[in-house]
Write a structure and sequence with these properties.
By secondary structure, this protein is an alpha/beta fold. The protein has two domains: 289 residues, Rossmann fold; 182 residues, Rossmann fold (3-Layer(aba) Sandwich). Helix content is 36%, strand content 16%. It has 18 helices and 18 strands. The strands form three sheets. The protein has a nine-stranded mixed beta sheet, with helices on both faces.
Length: 504
């Protein structure tokens, strides 16, 4: 709820004793009916336990939407945060090592609402300080190739009937490069379990030195264009794109965009071929029911004409801005070039000059963080910046802001524009990927065609004009809030793909 303030060896295969649970008591819990398709959802993060971005949100929400249609279970690495937050972890079995990929134990936990979660237990690989992908100094973990090859191999192991003697998946649903070697391991072993790979962001490919082939148990024969080779590198994502039975992206527009040189990151030729083969689909992400504004204030619901001003004043106070009845713009984003943060910096002066205010939360590239902080110092009563991220604070910003700035140069799906619309904050966005699929220009937000400062300023001026017309602003807010972005339709499309999947 959001509310304004009213005032390797044996040791590496072990798990923490406090996380163990009684095998018999766990087994006594009812299992899903065996008639449903058994799906292993493989991900490097899940918001129940740990996340860095939208993938964690999707990995929590989509399996829940799939539960009514499939026997879905989740596989994640046993990061320190997972071990600390998962609670009871049941010992399930052991998975063998291969090459330099170490053996590991496999445990099983359950989410608070009962979804089984398999946890890869190897302290040397995962139980460490720092982030999921980056060390405490902000650099890629030097052994990321082994860490995520282990995740991919564990998925393939389970597809081959290893790990859990009582459950074997009918389908693998893989997500982004950390899981994308799994279809390769299936192919190289001759395991015919169908695999589906969802590409959440093609820009992150998991590229490594080809000298690591043997260490990762990748056959030398696979290092070619029709395999894992990508411009002289070993690419995890390329392996998934080549070997997976079906590919999906997180919006229909992005599925089309990545078949072009502009957005295909060098893989556009192969992706275009998969599209022609009918093996590439765009399935829009959704958002979960926690973003339903009807439940924000118990039974009162969230009415923009009643609550928007209260949240706006709360946010102004939080960021140290002057009280104002002018428009409040927000940026809730990673502060990186992809998100068009440099373009937002260029339009900020336009916003201030027209009596608007801007609040920013997020983190990313140091030079963009510094530029945002400099802007706030220049306009201390009109611009507020907080480096970092707080989920409850972000929710209040969606509820209190009038407009959300999202000039992303590319955006596979995006979730912030959906969150914003649910609370009547109108997104101003580049017409690309999921932004184009979820924003109705002139009805639920404002779109511009080319990611330039000039076009972005034009969209901001349209927003300012709308703010000046109270009736039009109210109409757009209510139209935006009427969009639900539920997961149910997308879940049905995934379930259909699982049912129709054929290996090879």
């Amino acid at each position: 709820m959001i509310r304004p303030d009213k005032g390797g060896g044996h040791e590496s295969m072990s798990w923490r004793s406090q996380g163990l649970c009684d095998l018999e008591s766990e087994a006594a819990q009812a299992e899903p009916p065996v008639a449903r398709r058994k799906v292993l959802f493989v991900t490097s993060e899940i918001s129940d336990y740990v996340q860095t971005g939208g993938l964690g949100e999707v990995s929590a929400a989509l399996p829940r939407a799939l539960r009514a249609l499939s026997d879905v279970r989740i596989l994640v690495p046993g990061y320190r945060q997972v071990l600390e937050r998962a609670g009871c972890i049941e010992p399930v079995g052991l998975l063998p090592g291969l090459g330099e990929i170490p053996a590991c134990a496999l445990g099983r936990a359950r989410t608070a609402d009962g979804i089984p979660v398999y946890v890869i237990l190897n302290a040397d690989l995962y139980d460490r300080p720092g982030g999921l992908y980056l060390d405490p100094d902000g650099r890629d973990w030097i052994d990321n190739d082994v860490r995520f090859a282990r995740l991919s191999l564990a998925a393939a192991d389970m597809a081959a009937g290893l790990g859990d003697p009582n459950w074997r998946p009918d389908n693998l649903h893989l997500n982004d490069w950390p899981t994308a070697l799994a279809p390769g391991y299936l192919a190289w072993r001759g395991v015919e379990t169908p695999s589906l790979l969802t590409i959440h962001n093609l820009a992150y490919q998991g590229a490594f030195d080809p000298a690591r082939l043997k260490a990762l148990a990748i056959p030398e024969a696979a290092y070619k264009v029709d395999g894992v080779e990508f411009y002289g590198r070993l690419s995890f994502l390329k392996a998934g794109v080549y070997y997976a039975d079906h590919l999906t992206t997180v919006s229909e527009t992005y599925a089309q965009e990545i078949t072009t040189p502009q957005f295909g990151c060098g893989l556009h030729g192969l992706l275009a071929e998969r599209s022609r083969q009918g093996r590439l689909s765009g399935i829009l992400n959704g958002i979960d029911e926690s973003w339903d504004p009807r439940h924000t204030h118990h039974d009162e619901g969230f009415e923009p004409d009643r609550w928007k001003g209260r949240y706006a004043d709360y946010i102004r106070g939080l960021f140290g801005l002057a009280l104002s009845r002018g428009p409040l713009f927000a940026i809730i984003s990673r502060l990186v070039h992809q998100k068009g943060v440099d373009l937002s910096l260029e339009v900020a002066e336009e916003i201030v000059a027209h009596g608007g205010q801007l609040v920013v939360t997020g983190q990313g590239d140091t030079h963009l963080e510094d530029r945002m902080l400099t802007l706030a110092r220049k306009h201390p009563s009109q611009v507020g910046v907080r480096i970092g991220f707080d989920g409850s604070e972000a929710r209040a910003m969606f509820a209190g802001s009038d407009f959300l700035l999202m000039p992303s140069r590319f955006e596979p799906c995006g979730l912030s524009q959906m969150y914003a619309q649910r609370f009547g904050s109108l997104p101003i966005a580049h017409r690309t990927g999921g932004l184009a699929d979820t924003i109705e220009d002139g009805r639920t937000g404002f779109l511009f065609h080319t990611p330039t400062a000039q076009q972005f300023k034009g969209a901001v001026r349209r927003a300012l004009d709308t703010f000046g017309s109270g009736r039009r602003l109210d109409e757009m807010r209510r139209a935006a809030m009427a969009r639900t972005f539920e997961w149910s339709d997308s879940a049905r499309r995934y379930a259909t793909l699982y049912q129709s999947a054929r290996a090879g």
